[in-house]
Design brief:
It is a single chain. The chain has about 475 residues and is of the alpha+beta class. Helix 6 crosses helix 7 and helix 9 packs antiparallel against helix 12. The chain folds into two domains: about 160 residues, GAF domain (Beta-Lactamase, 2-Layer Sandwich), CATH 3.30.450.40; about 180 residues, Histidine kinase-like ATPase, C-terminal domain (Heat Shock Protein 90), CATH 3.30.565. It has 13 helices and 14 strands.
Length: about 475
Amino acid sequence: MSSEIELDKLLSTLLEVILKNAGADKCALLMPKGDRWLIEALSQLEQPAIVLHSRSGADALSLPFDDHQTVPVALINRVKNTLTLAVIENAVVDATLAADPYMLHHSPKSILCAPILNQGKLIGILYLENNLTVGAFTRDRLEILHLLMSQAAISLENACLYAELEDRVKERTQALNHKNDQLQMTLKELHRTQTQMVQSEKMSALGQLVAGIAHEINNPVSFIYGNLYPADEYTQKLILLLDLYRKHYPQSVKAIEEFTDLIELDFLRSDLPKLFKSMMMGAERIQEIVLSLRTFSRLDEAEMKAVDIHEGIDSTMVLINSRLKATDQRHQIEVIKEYGNIPLIECYAGQLNQVFLNILVNAIDALEDSVVRGRWATKKQALMDNPRIYIRTQLLVANQVTIRIADNGLGIPEDVKKQLFNPFFTTKPVGQGTGMGLAISYQIITERHGGSLECVSQPGVGAEFIIRIPLIQQRQISNT
């Protein structure tokens, strides 16, 4: 018993030792819990002890001693109040127990009830009975019980202190775990705040860039574009005048003929209109890019409003058009659009366009990485294969729009896919990615638009990002 420090094991050992040495066929141990006394362990001869004590300190398994089902209540109360040993040689004829319900129902022969004291403090009560023999608890057995009780008092006190210490450690551990959970939540909120700050700074920088481009480029380009038409008209008139001179004065002086041959007048005459047409196309392209930047950033639409998402996707494609062109390692990336009949959508258009940009750039990176990693092992095979990006939109239910952006690259491994939307996670080399693009995109879709963003991918087949957002936003979402 002295080697046992865990209370449950000690109770089992204590009852087993006492049954073997005391001449009893039933043994019960009672211990106080606050202002109540409970039966914490029971044992019968040739049966394992039943420990009812709970390690957690809860008494849900323990038995109340005053239910008259397990021990004689009157005798237990007498020992508890007097702190003296009670030995009854023939309980059947004992007048003090004649009215006890337990005695009337079970009629044990010999009974022993002893207080377990440690430095004068009552820490338990031991109840023994023998149902076969009168006077079973002899003087020799009482001496053995006295020794066992002395050791039991010390061991029980130590075990209770150990159990109390365990409970305190458990409570402290739970408190530390709670603190750790709070710290994890705080860290997660910090990451979320950092993501919001980066997103705000990124959109602010983009807005300043677009404003500068619109101011510095759009005005002179419009001036040039506007002057190209009259310049082309004037040139046509000059060519007509030249033709009239050549018609009415076919015989020119030698110097004019020599200069005509020198400047290749016939080629110049035919090429000059083409030159003006090419300049007009270039100016139109610049205007288109500037317009796309304005549409992409939506600086004039900070609040949520109804927009055409196809217009946003197309403006994003204009910005990344140069990255779709063929390289010496791959064919031109083909973009296949399958637009559904989608009405205007309530959204933060600039932020939604940023999501399109992040996902499309990642798709292009994945296709280029497929070449590097050997899917298209040779230049010839790379030119034969056709890298593709698919953009599909669909109105599935009354108030939900689905946008799917897929590529036919190598796909995303499962372990990477699980971390795609975590802030600062990236598989790109240092300096080539911040790990914020998809995290920001996820936040824009889920928090700002009350939608969902998921990635579906199979190795060797490609990856598909699926965006689902409500057609009409709830007011509480739009005010966040």
